Amino acid sequence: MASENKRATASWIACCAIWALGGCASTPASDGSGAWPPLSPGTLSATRTAQQVLRVAFGDREATLNCVVAVTPESINVVGTTAAGMRAFTVKYDSTGLQAQSHLPLQAAGQLPPPERLLNDLQLVHWPLEALQRHFKGTEWSVAEPYRGTRRLLRAGRLVAEVHFTGADAWSGTSWLANLESGYTLGVESKLLSDAR
User: Fold this and answer.
1) Beta bridge partners of 113
2) CATH class of 2-196
3) In this predicted model, what pLDDT tens digit does every residue of 76-107 receive, in sequence order?
4) How many helices (H) and strands (E) does the chain have?
């Protein structure tokens, strides 16, 4: 148990360091990604940090990432690294806007969606349903939970993405997302490291 905690702490520190270094070189998220405008950090109504394993699959191409998600009322910071410790992407969203950076070889190889799309996915998985519904009100987007453990995102009445949860809290469990529009799946294994309201 102690060794697992040490590894988790070391991974978290490494990811934070990588994010800090990468932040200086990040550029505004590009248009045309297909991503919807993210929810503001305060809509989570909590300060949380989670360590995650993301498994992204495009057809027969797969990538596994170690990821840290840190949310405060003022900002959202997400950093993903490969199993070898190479930076895959960083995302920062605050009052100044959305900043995202990709590790281009991975994205060019078709192994990763754009980082702003990954932020959408993480918010679709982790944000409260009510916050998502308020965010989409009056737009072509809508979100619902027709069954326990299932969340669906629609655009103009057409199913775009579906999320399945294996536990009561996606922040401390396993979730699976299928993006039907872009043709990829995302498995999320999440471990909550800190939680404050």
Assistant:
1) none
2) mainly beta
3) 999 999 888 888 889 999 999 999 888 756 55
4) 4, 11
